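Page 37, continued from 36.
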């Protein structure tokens, strides 16, 4: 009988020891994590921060948006633990110690005002790549009638980003150029550019999908319309090119490779050299594993499992 009690005691001890270790793992993780950078990654980072803090209440997470350029500069300058970057890392940044982790994927889309006089015709014909080049790169297109017949012989007003950002960089890359090659009235940030186009019936710009769609309804933001890309260049949006009605449709198209890359691209968290703080490493590791379950619901595209595994292996114990 005594043996049974001993065995029972050992089993209970093991159970409580395991439970205690789990609690200890949760409670001893503390400290502060700071992030800044890309508007594209900001909503996702906020969601990750909220969920991670639920698991680790003693961790403080500060997140601010300001463009990918600010994110990489802050990270390399030691101002933040992680920079949010929505473009590829430049060789000169790598030489300075930029250490990137790919964490998700999204895309940039062209946007116009819902009150555009040629809206219906534009939605039917879409935007050819060459037309986009003549709008943002050469500046030869001055009228909406040059974009597509029936859009009306009215002025075309072009908007771009004024801040160094991944959205402008990847949009320019779609035309084989760089952000500084983009023409248009410069507006700071994703929210600012979306608002500028929404207010201008003759305007055209571009946004990360998280600012072109409402996260709650998954539909396009009221007052703003995504201008479909005429990918095959035949002057109309074919059924296989028509996937913009909801955020979920577009996300699926990006995941399946139907939407071109660029302007689809990977998003990164970047540290200065290999992360050293235990709490930062734990946060990155969680993002690349359990944190991925929040990616699609927040309006992003999860990376393949193999890719995530590769990124996680970059972290030293």
């Amino acid at each position: 009988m005594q043996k049974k009690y001993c065995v029972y005691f050992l089993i209970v001890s093991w159970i409580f020891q395991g439970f205690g270790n789990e609690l200890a793992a949760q409670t001893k993780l503390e400290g502060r994590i700071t992030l800044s950078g890309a508007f594209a990654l900001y909503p996702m980072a906020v969601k990750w921060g909220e969920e991670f803090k639920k698991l680790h209440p003693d961790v403080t997470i500060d997140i601010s948006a300001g463009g990918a350029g600010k994110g990489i500069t802050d990270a390399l300058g030691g101002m933040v633990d992680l920079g949010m970057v929505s473009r590829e890392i430049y060789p000169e940044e790598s030489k300075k110690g930029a250490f990137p982790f790919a964490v998700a994927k999204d895309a940039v889309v062209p946007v116009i005002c819902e009150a555009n006089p040629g809206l219906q015709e534009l939605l039917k014909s879409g935007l050819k790549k060459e037309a986009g080049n003549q709008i943002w790169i050469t500046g030869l297109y001055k009228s909406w009638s040059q974009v597509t017949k029936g859009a009306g012989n009215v002025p075309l007003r072009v908007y771009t980003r004024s801040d160094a950002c991944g959205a402008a960089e990847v949009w320019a890359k779609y035309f084989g150029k760089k952000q500084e090659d983009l023409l248009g009235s410069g507006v700071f940030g994703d929210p600012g550019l979306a608002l500028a186009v929404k207010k201008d019936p003759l305007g055209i710009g571009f946004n990360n999908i998280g600012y072109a769609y409402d996260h709650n309804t998954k539909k396009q933001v009221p007052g703003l319309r995504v201008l479909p890309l005429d990918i095959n260049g035949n002057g109309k949006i074919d059924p296989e090119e028509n996937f913009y009605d909801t955020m979920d449709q577009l996300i699926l198209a990006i995941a399946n490779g139907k939407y071109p890359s660029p302007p689809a691209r990977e998003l990164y968290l970047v540290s200065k050299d290999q992360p050293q703080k235990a709490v930062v490493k734990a946060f990155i590791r969680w993002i690349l594993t359990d944190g991925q379950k929040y990616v699609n619901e927040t309006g992003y595209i999860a990376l393949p499992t193999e890719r995530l595994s590769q990124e996680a292996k970059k972290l030293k114990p």
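Residues 2-27 form the longest helix (26 residues). Flag for discussion at group meeting. The two ends are 46 Å apart (CA to CA).
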